[in-house]
Every structure is written in structure tokens, then in C-alpha cells.
Amino acid sequence: MTQRLVVHALTTLALLVTPVLAGCGESGSEGGSAPSYTSERVAPLPSELSDASSDTTPSPDDALVEIEMDSGGTAAVWIDPQDIRRVYVQASDPADPDAWTEPVLAHEAGDGCLTLDVDTAGETLAIGAGCYADDAFIQQAPESSVALVSTDLVSWESDEVGESIPVPEVVDDGDRVLFRNQVYDDRLDTEWERGEGF
């Protein structure tokens, strides 16, 4: 009788623990959080950056990318003109272009980022940021670049790719992202896959 109770107790415990463990071991944006469109646009407009190029800021073409997502909303990705170490993301509501998510800090670099490349498919948004650990305006190629991926516009997975200008290509309807290196003959820097990460 005692043995049967112990087996029953262990079986019950396994049934209770299994759903908790099923979500463990996955990183970043696989949690499935839904974006909340409760903000106004904070991302700079292209016209606000058109005269912003200087010796201490990235060029306007490199500092802001706007891209239409498959949902119908727009994602804006930008390097903060007040603090070029920071890369932010904000997205509009597909049902209301005046409603936006709160800006999300997707990455913070050591000395700054000078380039952005963005691609999207399905629910996946991928960013390649050309960043520097130090001396952003002295070194030639970014030596501390990063690959970033989100499937929910809330949380981000990242991979440091070193000396690179990483350009993402989202394939397989958003299930995979290839980051190609524009510094060294288009070699593959890194790859991300849904459920596996980097």
C-alpha cells in the first residue's frame, strides 16, 4: 500500500513539474509576450535626422531604419542621437498607425554604434548593428558588432559577432536569420533559428 502511494505521489509531482520545466532552457524572445501599443511615436522621424550628421554621430541613413512588418505595422529601429551607444526599437499597431509600443532598448554598446541593417519576415525582426567597444570614430571597421533577433517586439536575443557590419537576412517565413559580414567578403557571421537561438 505504501509503495502504491509513493508511486502515485511521484506521478502527481511529475505532472505538476512538467509544464513548468517545458518553458525552461529557451532564451530571449521565445516567451511569446505580446506587444502593448500604449505609447506615441518616440522614434525620430527621418526629417529630424537629415541634418544630424557630424563627426560624433552616425549618418542619418545609418542611424534610423523603418521597415514594414508582415503584420502591417511599422518597426522603427534607431541609434539614439543623444547617446550612440544605445539602439532602440519601437513598432506601430497594425490596426492604428498612431499607437506604438513603448521604446525598447535592444542593445547598448561600449562606445557606440554607427550602422544599422534590419530585415523582417513573419513575426521576426532582425537587426545587425555595427558597434565599437571604444574609439567609434577612430577605428575603421566596427569591432564589437552585434546580431539581434526578436519574435515578439518585446524581448531580444543577441550574439556578439566582433569585427563586422552584420546584415541580416530573415528566411523561412521568420524561422531563420542569416547575418552576413559586409566587412569580409559577405561571410556568414552567425545564424539564428527559432527554438534554438544563436
Query: What Rg do the Cα atoms give?
Result: 20 Å
Give the integer mean of the pLDDT values: 83
Number of strands: 12
- Structural class based on helices, strands and sheet pairing: mainly beta
Distance between the termini: 50 Å
Helix percent band = 10-25%
Q: Summarize the helix and strand pattern as letters.
A: HHHEEEEEEEEEEEE
Q: Number of DSSP helices? A: 3
Unreliable stretches: 1-30
Biggest sheet architecture: 5 strands, antiparallel
- Beta percentage is 35-45%
Number of domains: 1
Overall 3D shape: globular
> What oligomeric state do the depicted chains represent?
single chain
List the helices and strands and how they pair.
Elements: H1 2-22, H2 46-49, H3 60-63, E1 64-68, E2 74-79, E3 86-93, E4 96-100, E5 104-108, E6 112-121, E7 124-132, E8 145-150, E9 157-162, E10 166-171, E11 176-181, E12 187-193
Antiparallel strand pairs: 1-2, 2-3, 3-4, 3-5, 6-7, 7-8, 8-9, 10-11, 11-12
Task: Summarize the structure in words.
This protein is mainly beta and 198 residues long. The chain has one domain (2-193). Helices cover 15% and strands 40% of the residues. The protein has 3 helices and 12 strands. Strands 1, 2, 3, 4 and 5 form a 5-stranded antiparallel β-sheet that branches. It has a 4-stranded antiparallel β-sheet with strand order 6-7-8-9, with no helix packed on it. The protein has a 3-stranded antiparallel β-sheet with strand order 10-11-12, with no helix packed on it. The longest helix has 21 residues, at 2-22. It is globular and about 45 Å long. The protein starts with a helix and ends in a 5-residue tail after the last strand.
